[in-house]
Amino acid sequence: MKGFVFHGSGRASWQDVPDPAVKEPTDAIVKVDAVTICGTDLHILKGDVPEVRPGTVLGHEAVGEIAEAGGDVCTVRPGDRVLVSCITSCGRCRFCRESAYGQCRGGGGWILGHLVDGTQAEYVRVPHADLCVHPLPAAVRDEDAVLLADVFPTAYEVGVLNGHVRPGDTVAVVGAGPIGLAAIATARMFSPERIIAVDLTPARLEAAHRLGADAIADVHEAPGQLVADLTDGLGADVVIEAVGVPESFEMCTRMVRPGGHVANVGVHGRPATLHLEDLWIRNVTITTGLVDTYSIPTLLRMAAAGRLPTRQLVTHAFPLHRMEEAYDVFSKAGETGALKVVLGVAQHAEVAVPAT
């Protein structure tokens, strides 16, 4: 079969790799029908995630069909159409018992495309399949479902729920990439008074407005002042950091009101300064987190009911064998306008224009 293989910093290729096989009775082999590329995959390619060894197939999100199931797998069988979660969970350790699957100590957590071969291939082995693959409703299309493997659960759990968004809140989302846009969409479910989106790119700010942002601000045009003006100088109740650079995190801590929440979602590769000399007296709560994906069943039901704007995030689609081209398009999002790039979808369209 073919897979997208990491060869070291700045090097990867779509090439022949061995077919995966069932190693444990709890494994399943999934024939991949759709995958997407994550910003974390770009971090890996830059050499920012040293745990990923050369020779690893990348990717941690997929939709596909069960090709083979180990003897202990009970919830799915060959032929079932499924969503592969970005997080693997043993279901037995302390953290899994608390639904903190991202911290699994029983051979789970974020392992696909990280510690074991991932989903950007024609087939993938999924450990602990009973807990980590989700049967898909017929009403949910592949290109919609694949966004529920990571993007929407991450935005919802690590951003919106960790940030304690409540009715009547002012919510500021710093970063209008896929995670930030999904945070805007899921924050709306809690009826905030207003959502303010901050980004560098006009196209992404326009997308934020389409998805429900009530106000948008270019990062170079004093977004902190806009937040202050809209809140009578108080600051935002919840600020969601969805970029992953020191400057954006520090901006978030300046935008939040006393007693408010900063929910950090971005993956940081450099240290950020925590200004405790200013924050200690303001009763600010700062949360971080790796997604646990406990919300996938809920999000799947919402998608089946047409309550999630998943397809509005998909800007480009390619067949699997054009993986290298898709990475190039996704990595140059400022030039290409890419939000989410989906590969392997049935129509194999090169560009899918988001609905307005």
From TrEMBL:
The lineage of its organism: Bacteria, Bacillati, Actinomycetota, Actinomycetes, Kitasatosporales. Residues 8-343 form the Enoyl reductase (ER) domain. Belongs to the zinc-containing alcohol dehydrogenase family. InterPro entries: ADH-like_C, ADH-like_N, ADH_Zn_CS, ER, GroES-like_sf, NAD(P)-bd_dom_sf. It comes from Streptomyces argyrophylli. Its cofactor is Zn(2+). It holds the Pfam family ADH_zinc_N. The keyword Ligase does not apply. This is Zinc-dependent alcohol dehydrogenase family protein. It comes from the Bacteria. GO terms for molecular function: oxidoreductase activity; zinc ion binding. Keywords: Metal-binding, Oxidoreductase, Zinc.
